[in-house]
Prior knowledge:
The protein is of the alpha+beta class. It has a single domain (2-166), classed as 3-Layer(aba) Sandwich (Glutaredoxin). It has helices at 2-11, 67-79, 100-109, 124-128, 159-166; strands spanning 14-16, 25-32, 38-41, 46-48, 56-62, 88-94, 118-119, 136-140, 146-151. It has a 9-stranded mixed β-sheet with strand order 1-2-9-8-5-6-7-3-4, with helices on both faces. Helix 2 links the parallel strand 5 and strand 6. The radius of gyration is 15 Å and the shape is globular.
Amino acid sequence: xxxxxxxxxxxxxxxxxxxxxxxxxxxxxxxxxxxxxxxxxxxxxxxxxxxxxxxxxxxxxxxxxxxxxxxxxxxxxxxxxxxxxxxxxxxxxxxxxxxxxxxxxxxxxxxxxxxxxxxxxxxxxxxxxxxxxxxxxxxxxxxxxxxxxxxxxxxxxxxxxxxxxxxxx
Length: 169
């Protein structure tokens, strides 16, 4: 399945990183710009991505039933406090049909303390970004342009990933 997804991206506007130390990362040949990207915070208030220009942004799409999401979430939580990144915003966005209580239980069970819970109901952002599965992390540069995606789970604390991402900090 992963090879098929990467193949689709290669046919369009992306190239998989040809580095065996970095898995699942696809970098866009051309930067992608979107209008009006928004999602909901835990209080059902609208969060607009355009308010975060000037920051490196990771939108991490997850669901509570997703085993790979559960696997990667603790490292994403710790990435939030990594001193390498002074300008990083991480938005873990639940694309499942979970309410706040179930989402909070998922975070509590994994001891997630550095991240907030966000929602994409009724999956309008996922559709706009052509999301094909979870977990998927979309990375935006400081101008608010998508420059890469992580398809599937990774260890966000992996030194090779940190070194790669820090080039965009």
